[in-house]
Design a protein that fits this description.
Blueprint lengths: L7 E7 L7 E7 L7 E10 L2 H8 L10 E2 L3 E9 L11 E4 L2 E3 L5 H4 L10 E2 L11 E5 L3 E3 L6 H4 L2 H13 L8 E5 L3 H12 L3 E6 L4 H8 L4 E4 L3 H4 L7 E6 L6 H8 E9 L12 H5 L3 E4 L5 H12 L9 E6 L3 H9 L5 E5 L2
Parallel strand pairs: 11-12, 11-14, 12-13, 14-15, 15-16, 17-18
Antiparallel strand pairs: 1-2, 1-4, 3-5, 3-9, 3-18, 5-6, 6-10, 7-8
Helix pairs in contact: 4-5, 4-10
């Protein structure tokens, strides 16, 4: 099936590195390659990284101008000549690694998410805050008919959380886990830790009260401010794991205070600010500091299964659904902490 190349659609474009440089522009339907598909986007989630590009406090290189959006799902409406495993109309979600070097040593072992040449949707290549997006067929995952696109498009942040909690932290039943930051990733990390059988507290600030109420729906304790008392409630030594999902470097110092000797801190939140404090407690307490970035194929398959069978419910974090033309309101609601996750739909 070939679509008319002159089709124009509204798109949310980040057009420069200046603060606030995001606006609606009309773009043409992309041309696809032999190993690509064209997706008609059904739903796209707003990520914290989209907000960071909007407010110009991000720490990654962006290829301006670029269509934002990397949390998305939709229906296949066009197939590249060499695409055999998919058909028109298939309901799919897409991974974020739009460009990889398949011959890179990391890609060859399945860790293409760590390929230094990787470029993702929404900053490296055009993303999905528009009607049509070009996607390499290797990025696709099938979703069942009963899973709504509004939920399926959040496979991506759920996969970030799965990798942080299950892959890079290996949390066990009975562990005590503190999550710093009640944003989308923080709450989903807490939900994953609960699925692993952990006792979980989510920590935020006074302005996070609404988002902390959402964390309660996942069976977590919530704390505003100092979590020291909770971390030491059992034997006085601290939490087994601290998941740093806040967008600030300062929270790493808080994490070092809260974690027990021989415990682990997993940092999944981005914070471009200089540290400005000593890392000596990391040495003195024999702490493991683990970074966690992105995800790969098997993680997506596990997460889709969790969403499909109802073990992981993302409905509590969805704060509203807006047409793409109202992107600014959707961004503002998340930026102010009034909702955890905004969803956009093309028009």
């Amino acid at each position: 099936m070939q679509m008319t190349s002159g089709v124009k659609s509204a798109a949310v474009i980040n057009y420069s590195s200046e603060k606030g440089s995001v606006e609606i522009r009309e773009i043409s339907k992309p041309d696809i390659g032999e190993e690509d598909v064209l997706l008609e986007v059904a739903s796209v989630g707003v990520c914290g990284s989209d907000l960071h590009q909007w407010t110009a406090d991000h720490s990654w290189q962006v290829n301006y101008p670029v269509v934002l959006g990397h949390e998305f799902g939709g229906n296949i409406v066009e197939l590249g000549k060499r695409v055999k495993e998919w058909k028109l109309g298939d309901r799919v979600v897409s991974e974020t690694a739009a460009v990889i070097d398949p011959n890179n040593a990391l890609s060859r072992t399945g860790l293409y998410n760590l390929d230094p040449n990787r470029k993702g949707f929404g900053y490296g290549v055009n993303g999905a805050m528009t009607r049509f997006v070009k996607v390499p067929a290797r990025c696709l995952h099938r979703i069942p008919d009963h899973l709504p696109f509004e939920e399926a498009c959040l496979t991506e942040p759920c996969s970030v959380a799965y990798n942080a909690v299950v892959g890079n932290s290996r949390i066990k039943p009975g562990d005590r886990v503190i999550v710093l930051g009640p944003g989308t990733i923080g709450i989903l990390c807490a939900a994953m830790a609960k699925l692993c059988g952990a006792e979980v507290a989510v920590v935020g600030l006074e302005g996070d009260r609404h988002r902390l109420e959402i964390a309660k729906k996942y069976g977590c304790e919530v704390i505003i401010g100092d979590a020291t008392a909770w971390s030491r409630r059992t034997d006085g030594l601290g939490a087994d794991f601290v998941i740093d999902a806040a967008g600030s470097s300062l929270t790493l110092k808080i994490a070092m205070d809260l974690v027990r000797p021989n415990g682990q801190i997993t940092k999944v939140g981005w914070g471009p600010q200089p540290l400005g404090f000593s890392l000596d407690p990391l040495v003195q307490k024999n702490i493991t500091l683990q970074g966690s970035f992105s995800h790969n194929w098997p993680i997506w398959e596990k997460v889709i299964a969790l969403l499909a069978n109802g073990m992981l419910d993302v409905k509590p974090i969805i704060g509203g659904i807006w047409p793409i033309t109202q992107w600014n309101e959707a961004f503002e609601k998340m930026h102010k902490g009034e909702v955890v996750k905004s969803i956009l739909k093309p028009v």
